[in-house]
Amino acid sequence: KPRLYSGMQPSADSLQIGNYIGALLQWRDLQQSYEAFFSVVDLHALTQPNDPAELREKTRRTAAQYIAAGIEPSKSTLYVQSHVRAHAELAWILSTITGFGEAGRMTQFKDKSQRFGADATSVGLFTYPVLMAADILLYQTDIVPVGDDQKQHVELTRDLAERFNSRYGTAFTVPMPVIQKDTARIYDLQNPAAKMSKSAESDAGVLWLLDDPAVSAKKIMRAVTDSDGTVRYDRDEKPGVSNLLVIYAALTGRQIPAIEDEYAGRGYGDFKKGLAEVVVEEFGPVRQRALDLLADPAELDRLLAMNAAKADAVADATLADVYDKVGLLRRL
Ligand code: TYM
Q1: pLDDT (tens digit, 9 = 90+) per residue, 40-96?
Q2: Which of 76, 108, 157, 210 is spaced 20 to 30 A from 285 at the CA atom?
Q3: 24 vs 115, 134, 146, CA distance in Å?
Q4: Ligand 1 centroid to residue 327 C-alpha, Å
Q5: ipTM of this predicted structure
Q6: Domains of the chain
Q7: How close is the Cα of 213 to the center of ligand 1, in Å?
Q8: Residues 5 and 145: beta-carbon distance below 8 Å
Q9: CA-CA distance, 175 to 60, in Å (whole number)?
Q10: Which residue is closest in CA terms to ligand 1's atom 6?
């Protein structure tokens, strides 16, 4: 079976619907035909300020949401990044073949460092994409399903794999990003020009997987639309309505034109009510499963430990090969 790798940061108490639609739904389907590795990337989350106890809890919560959304820990390897030492070690090796300018061109770094200012920008934030490359390359990954904001990082990963392979001999599979075009970017409900994000400034435009369904329904009813009044997909002229249509289609598996037809001649109120029902129906059970899993943290931790052992075995083999190839002396 070909290999698949992906991950998410435990950067909030709950995932948002962009993570769910842009990534988790694909993961759930793809795990059937790929040997899949899914990590909760807690080392990456350290690049932003964290309360240590909260980070631990967010890590568990993120893992629980993977499982609740349909990732099967008996079939796929679902683990916590920091449990597998090889990630940090390979990141160091890869950092020695990454150009300073090359890393500086990453748009996510440029955006964040500009927002934080030079003094609040850590070296870890700068090398974040190198750690991500290590995640992917340790597992001889064929495909990396992500939303489009991660595409540039996967491109860097490919460049680093090719560079290493030609400089030292082939150690890595060169991975392909897989981006579901229609759902690659879910937008903020209050600001449909910005992508929905766990770190959004205002909560009103973000739908959280673990929110009380009634709260999510209310946010949908208040979502920004336009004064045109027709339920029609037009990304440029009607970004708010188009975003809601994309969410509706993704959660129901229906085509956008069929949804437009259903709401033809009806107002936005009806459409939003319909979407709110879809969201409540989809997220209600996911939320309940996640809360059930979190009620027994010891069992969850045990599951994560078993999966980390599976990941370790694969990652250690790649790392040992890399250490040999770059000329590190083997410890007897
Ligand atoms: P993160 O935690 O920001 O996001 C997790 C996944 O969700 C996707 N996503 C979205 N998709 C559509 N619309 C949105 N509004 C939206 N917001 C987020 C992201 O594209 C991503 O697929 N660096 C990564 C985590 C990572 C990783 C990896 C991913 C670390 N190592 C190795 C893949 C492979 C990140 O911060 O994702």
Answers
A1: 999 999 999 999 999 999 999 999 999 999 999 999 999 999 999 999 999 999 999
A2: 76
A3: 28, 21, 9
A4: 34
A5: 0.98
A6: 3-179+296-326 (3.40.50.620), 203-291 (1.10.240.10)
A7: 23
A8: no
A9: 28
A10: 19
